[in-house]
């Protein structure tokens, strides 16, 4: 049984939530483009964009990892790191009085998930065990 669909669905719902948040702020401020100098909208836009910049590549890499028949536990660990990292980052950056620990921890978890997944995939190719 594959585990990645669970994480893809959760991340998809988070993305939709971030989208609704940005749309809601745009409607409230009556802005269709840009941020109009509003700091909260600027942060919402950046959280949404940053999520969209990192998650697709991470999901592709995790899919490749899962397709190599690696342990489900390994996929769970890396995918969980990604989800927690994205939530912490989104929370941290969303705050007007940002506590940097959330943003930093979120980015570290996201990057570690990407790096570890890439390293395992490279090892698979190097060892010639790629399916």
From TrEMBL:
Q: Which residues cross the membrane?
A: 6-24, 45-64, 70-88, 100-126
Q: What is its main location?
A: membrane
Keywords of this entry: Membrane, Transmembrane, Transmembrane helix
Reply yes or no: does the keyword Transcription regulation apply. no
Q: Where in the cell is it found?
A: Membrane
Q: Which domain of life, per UniProt? A: Bacteria
Record bears the keyword Transmembrane helix: yes
Protein name as catalogued: MAPEG family protein
Source organism phylogeny? Bacteria, Pseudomonadati, Pseudomonadota, Betaproteobacteria, Burkholderiales
